[in-house]
Amino acid sequence: MRLLITGGRGMVGSNLVRGLSEAHEVQAPGRDTFDLLDARSVQETVSRLAPDLIIHAAGRVGGIAANAAANALFLYENTMMGLNVLEAARLAGVPRVLNLGSSCIYPKDRDEQLREDDLHTGPLEPTNEGYAVAKIAVLKYAAMLRNDDPRCDYKTAIPCNLYGPGDHFEPPRSHMVPSAIRKIDDARRAGDAEVEIWGDGTARREFMYVGDLVDFVGHAIERWDTLPPLVNVGLGHDYTINEYYAEIADVVGWGGTFVHDTSKLVGMKRKLLSVDLADAWGWKAPTSLTDGLRRTYEHYLETAR
Ligand SMILES: NC(=O)C1=CN([C@@H]2O[C@H](COP(=O)(O)OP(=O)(O)OC[C@H]3O[C@@H](n4cnc5c(N)ncnc54)[C@H](OP(=O)(O)O)[C@@H]3O)[C@@H](O)[C@H]2O)C=CC1
Ligand SMILES: C[C@H]1O[C@H](OP(=O)(O)OP(=O)(O)OC[C@H]2O[C@@H](n3cnc4c(=O)[nH]c(N)nc43)[C@H](O)[C@@H]2O)[C@@H](O)[C@@H](O)C1=O
């Protein structure tokens, strides 16, 4: 199949390009020649490349601090990019699009697993409201095109928090896992006895290895017709932030203690996806947390330092 992957130089996109290139013909032009904020240029490129399927993995992405500092920018850019890609696909007659959402589209303050039909049932988390509103607008546009036009077989997968090779380790952009890897590795090198955790460490998160998302997308392409049009992609279980830091300390080989900065942003207390739908479709995430963290730390040592 001829695939066009947006954001092919990002964490998710670069892993998709690597993982799917053997089985498929993959095109993944970068932002220098394919600026997704420029609707006309997106239409021209999509029409010229005429892919069988677009995987939309581009976006303005960042951790809690980056989002909270620029909610308007995250809303604007992610909405524009997503709508430009979908509209260009529609105009060029691209039959299939797999759009990537995010678990932050669901209501905050839910202790139970978040199901696909929980969308629009409560207020959003303010630290990333701009990003969430954009993700909702784009997935809705995909769903409405699908409903209005039988030629638009456009679907959205909703991943939980992700980490892995190609992640961004530099603050303030980083998500928790790459930030913790960097802080703990710095402490190991410097012989520091303490590392700081944002918040009290009791918030829970579901972090999935990015290779598992690539595995899911590979299956989605193979079994496209049965893939639900809106589907969560996660592990179905989560850990506290303190538990992630402890596991990362083990992987890095650092034996110090943690201190908590409770003045930092914490965001949702829990953000755990229900994976019942993906499970019934026949997919499970294959990588354990320890294996995923080991591979990510190896990548960090090879490239990011
Ligand atoms: N990381 C995570 O934890 C999660 C990510 N997702 C979703 O997965 C997708 C990929 O995220 P991730 O790989 O982590 O993010 P990255 O920041 O690693 O990658 C984003 C990519 O989008 C590209 N991009 C940004 N703006 C533009 C633009 N104007 N024109 C063209 N390309 C652009 C970037 O290009 P450049 O390299 O030039 O900056 C980069 O290649 C996003 O949709 C994100 O919302 C969903 C859930 C969790
Ligand atoms: C993918 C997802 O990512 C973001 O939401 P988030 O889940 O809050 O992501 P995060 O990884 O930044 O934080 C997770 C938790 O971890 C705590 N935490 C501890 N110590 C550090 C730390 O050092 N850095 C960071 N970033 N967080 C830390 C932090 O306080 C929070 O409680 C949004 O961009 C959202 O838009 C989105 O889609």
Describe what is shown at a glance.
With 305 residues, the chain is an alpha/beta fold. Helix content is 43%, strand content 16%. The chain has helices at 11-20, 39-49, 64-69, 71-92, 129-148, 176-190, 210-222, 241-252, 276-281, 289-304, and strands spanning 2-6, 25-27, 53-56, 96-100, 153-159, 161-163, 194-198, 204-205, 207-209, 230-233, 239-240, 257-261.
Please tell me about this protein's structure.
This protein has 305 residues and is an alpha/beta fold. It contains ten helices and twelve strands. The protein has helices at residues 11-20, 39-49, 64-69, 71-92, 129-148, 176-190, 210-222, 241-252, 276-281, 289-304, and strands at residues 2-6, 25-27, 53-56, 96-100, 153-159, 161-163, 194-198, 204-205, 207-209, 230-233, 239-240, 257-261. The strands form four sheets. The protein has a six-stranded parallel beta sheet with strand order 2-1-3-4-5-10, with helices on both faces. The chain has a two-stranded parallel sheet with strand order 6-9. Helix 6 packs across helix 8 (241-252) and helix 8 crosses helix 10. NADPH dihydro-nicotinamide-adenine-dinucleotide phosphate (NDP) binds next to helix 1 and strand 6.
Ordered list of secondary-structure elements with their pairings:
Layout: E1 2-6, H1 11-20, E2 25-27, H2 39-49, E3 53-56, H3 64-69, H4 71-92, E4 96-100, H5 129-148, E5 153-159, E6 161-163, H6 176-190, E7 194-198, E8 204-205, E9 207-209, H7 210-222, E10 230-233, E11 239-240, H8 241-252, E12 257-261, H9 276-281, H10 289-304
Parallel strand pairs: 1-2, 1-3, 3-4, 4-5, 5-10, 6-9, 7-12
Antiparallel strand pairs: 8-11
Helix pairs in contact: 1-7, 2-4, 4-5, 6-8, 8-10
This protein binds NADPH dihydro-nicotinamide-adenine-dinucleotide phosphate and ligand F7E.
The site of the ligand C[C@H]1O[C@H](OP(=O)(O)OP(=O)(O)OC[C@H]2O[C@@H](n3cnc4c(=O)[nH]c(N)nc43)[C@H](O)[C@@H]2O)[C@@H](O)[C@@H](O)C1=O has 26 residues, from helix 3, helix 6 and strand 7.
